[in-house]
Amino acid sequence: KDSEVKNICCIGAGYVGGPTMAVIADNCPSLKVNVVDINEERIKKWNEKDFDRLPIYEPGLAEIIKRCRNKNLFFSIDIKKHIESADMIFLSVNTPIKKSGLGKGQASDLKYIESSTREIAKYAKGETIIVEKSTLPVRTAETIKSILESNDKSFNNQKFSVLSNPEFLAEGTAINDLENPDRVLIGGENPEAITALEEIYVNWVDKNKILKTNLWSSELSKLVANAFLAQRISSINSISAICETTGADINEVSRAIGMDTRIGEKFLNAGPGYGGSCFKKDILNLVYLSKYYGLNEVASYWQKVVDLNVWQQHRIRKIIVKKLFNNLTSKKIGIMGFSFKANTNDTRESPAIQICKDLIEEGADLRIYDPKVNKFQIEKDLEQNQFNDNGEGSWTLCKSIKDIAIDADAIVIATEWEEFKSLDWSDISRLMRSPKWLFDTRGITNSKDIKQHNINYWKIGLGDSS
Ligand code: NAD
Ligand code: UGA
């Protein structure tokens, strides 16, 4: 091998590994990119002939896969082979919250990082740059280095450098975020390794958007960015409750404060609480880190961001129960949207899960419609089979909005899919049972549009009197 990077291997073919490597392959035709995973099923889906059946839905992703797959982008389960040939290896494995042991419920579970690092130690040949793409606790690079260095490296002439290169993409806009990042962060110690990674990004990213820091700043910045974003949502959600009781309108308040350029207008949409695989986990990680270093006030400050989010999700149930005469038994409730946000099939930590579980617990019969989420996923998330009506609440997945509206006592908008923004509410109203209710937890509908069709209306952050 010479020092130029020609072969890339990415361990982990998930929401980050798949789209990130697709964009790298698309922008760097001379690189060969191999994405590997232990999940055979997932790799099979990445190699599907039918591009509608890729394991991940992201606008624009299928087109890139069509252009690059089997040209310079490959999906495989042959981890050994692709580690052996790689000059640069991205770690994009999952880093969930620990379910047991020390740090249970807060600390990151690094078992996947450790197992993939051990694979690298076993198979890598010559000089290899290891890039942390997964979101990791501060100083994980140290752990990675110790595992790599504990190996007898003489056999394969191994030499490793470790870089931190956190990913800031958001699901639903992953391709656009990867194509036009606000910044690319590279943390590391070895200047040649840093340059090698920079050389890849400059193929499509402006050089002045590439920030170089030390390893620990880079790892910490990722956790802090997510904590700040989530904090904005908890802040605006806390105000949504004040709006509902005072007659103020959260959309007007968001607009008014967002026009202050110091505050900014983005990420000020009140909703049913943030979901997604990362905000909760990354803040809890920061809480754990703070406690570990004896910074208890810092820990409780960030813990509150999570607590408020849990409160907001359960608050929706209370409102629905109260408006529907304190009784949901055998009432039909349509649920619009199940993914944690629009334009993704991902349901991890989706607020819709908690809302549905709460309503089922109250005895409601739910009719769920989501343009991208399938039955098996919902079954897994709700921990209950479809049609399992034991008289204590049930759920069914429907194919259309019309199907969820038939005889429904209420409809709950749980995800802000574009198609829910321009519905014909007169048609929907005709199918529902009176008294009819719409609960808009995403604030995407207009009260006048709904009320004129004889539907009672509740919207997040909107007082009854406004
Ligand atoms: P994911 O669960 O979708 O994908 C991770 C993949 O890694 C899985 O397919 C799993 O089978 C595979 N894997 C685990 N151990 C392996 C091993 N030893 N060898 C080979 N494959 C292995 O997770 P994700 O959403 O892509 O997130 C990955 C990381 O990126 C996390 O640390 C997350 O915090 C971070 N992140 C995620 C997002 C996002 O939007 N999802 C954005 C930025 C950062
Ligand atoms: C988030 C960050 O935005 C990414 O920068 C980061 O890379 C990623 O986490 C990660 O580390 O995983 P993501 O979770 O995909 O991305 O999606 P967001 O757009 O941030 O939305 C998260 C949740 O907040 C969703 O449930 C969304 O509906 C909610 N949200 C977002 C609001 O309730 N209000 C808002 O104003 C914005």
Which terms summarize this structure?
466 residues, alpha/beta, six-stranded parallel beta sheet, 17 helices, 41% helix, globular, binds nicotinamide-adenine-dinucleotide, binds uridine-5'-diphosphate-glucuronic acid, NAD, UDP-glucose 6-dehydrogenase activity, UDPglc_DH_euk
Give the secondary structure arrangement, pairings included.
Blueprint: E1 7-11, H1 17-27, E2 32-36, H2 40-46, H3 61-68, E3 73-76, H4 79-84, E4 88-91, H5 111-123, E5 127-132, H6 140-149, E6 159-164, H7 174-179, E7 184-187, H8 191-201, E8 210-213, H9 215-246, H10 250-258, H11 279-292, H12 296-323, E9 332-336, H13 351-361, E10 365-369, H14 375-382, E11 394-397, H15 401-405, E12 410-413, H16 425-431, E13 436-440, H17 447-451, E14 455-459
Parallel strand pairs: 1-2, 1-4, 2-3, 4-5, 5-6, 7-8, 9-10, 9-12, 10-11, 12-13, 13-14
The structure holds nicotinamide-adenine-dinucleotide and uridine-5'-diphosphate-glucuronic acid.
* Cα-to-Cα separation, first versus last residue: 69 Å
Q: What's the total number of strands?
A: 14
How are the strands ordered across the major sheet? 3-2-1-4-5-6
General form: globular
Mean pLDDT: 95
Biggest sheet details: 6 strands, parallel
Bound molecules: nicotinamide-adenine-dinucleotide, uridine-5'-diphosphate-glucuronic acid
Which regions are unreliable across 5 or more consecutive residues at pLDDT < 50?
none
Class from helix and strand fractions: alpha/beta
**Percent strand:** 5-15%
Helical fraction equals: 40-55%
Computed over alpha carbons, the radius of gyration is: 24 Å
Distinct helical segment count: 17
